[in-house]
Amino acid sequence: MVDKQKLKERQPVAWRILSNALKSGHISHAYMFYGQKGPDQSRMALLFAQSLVCEHPDEDGFACQQCDTCRQMEREISPDFYWLHPGGTRSRKPMTRKELDAWWKNQTLEPEKKKTWRLRKEDIQNLQDTFSYTSSTTTGRQIYLIEQYEEATASASNTLLKFLEEPKDNLTGILCTGAINMVLPTIVSRCQLIPLRAPARSALEEQIGELIEDEELVSILAKAGYDNDRITSLLEGEALFEIRQAAHDYWNARSTHGAIVRLETGVFAKGAFGSREAVVFFLNCLLYFAEQENRSDIKALEERTVLLESIDAMRLPLDPLLLVERTARDLKRISQRR
Ligand SMILES: [Zn+2]
Fold first, then answer.
1. Cα 134 to ligand 1 centre (Å)
2. Distance 44 CA to ligand 1 centre (A)
3. Residue 64 sits in the same domain as residue 159
C-alpha cells in the first residue's frame, strides 16, 4: 500500500492532474508517466490504475487501496488489469519488487538480470489478445500498465502504436518511463503526459551548501540532482551566477519576443553558453523558477512539461543553442495564448 499523503507532497503536479481527471471523469485512452526514475513512478501509476475502478475513492478521487478490487489489482489477479513490469506475473523472468526498487535507486543490479527485462512484440500481442476476447467483468473499465517502456523493442512499439491508434472504449493504457526521449514520438503524442519529479533531497542540499553559499543556487542544483563532480566542473568553467541571472530575466519576460532576442545577444553572444552543461543548468534554472510560481493551471503545467522535455532532450546529440531557442519559442507561444 502506498502512503498517499507522502505521494501527494512529493508529486504535487502529477497528483493534481490525475486528481482532476478522476474527479471530472475525463479519462484519456493513454497516459505516460515520465521523469526521473524512481519508485514514485511505479507507485503513482498503480494507484492511478486502482483509482480508475475503485468504488471508494477519497476526496481527491484516488483509490482506497483496501477494497477487493484494489487488492486484486495490486496482487495481479484482477481480470481487468494487465500489468507488465519486471518481476510481474506477466513477464518472463521474475524480478522481485525489492530488487526492482533497488535497481531504480542506484541501478546496481547485475547487468544480465537487468537485460532480461525487455518488452517484446509478443508481450504487446498477449496484452491485446487479453482485452479483445474478454469483456470487463465488474467495473466497466479495463486497464493495462506497462513499466519501463523505454525497454520496448521497435516491433513492440509498432504493435502498441496500432493498438493506440484504434482506442477501445473503456480501455485505458498507462505507460511509465524514465527516458521519454527513447520512446517513439508517435507513441508519446498519443498519451497524456504526467510528469514525475525526483524527490527533494535535503542531504544533497547540505552537500551542495558546502560548495556554494547562495541559497537559491543550492536549491536549483539540488532539485535538479547535481552531484559534487558536476557542480565542481560547472563552478570551474561556467558563469553560474550570470547564467542564473539571465535565466531569471528571461523567465520574467518569456512572453515577449524581446526575451529571446536578449538571450541571443546577451549571455549567448558572450559565450557563457560554452558547454552543454551550461545549457542544461540554464534550463534547470527555468524549471526551478517555473515550479517556484506554484501555479496549477494548464499553462503552467505545459511550461513545466516543455522544460522537462528540453532537459531530457539535452541527452541527445542536438545543438544546445537551437534547443534553447526552440524551448523559448514554445514558452512564448504558451504564455501568449489566452
Ligand atoms: Zn478500493
1. 22
2. 15
3. yes
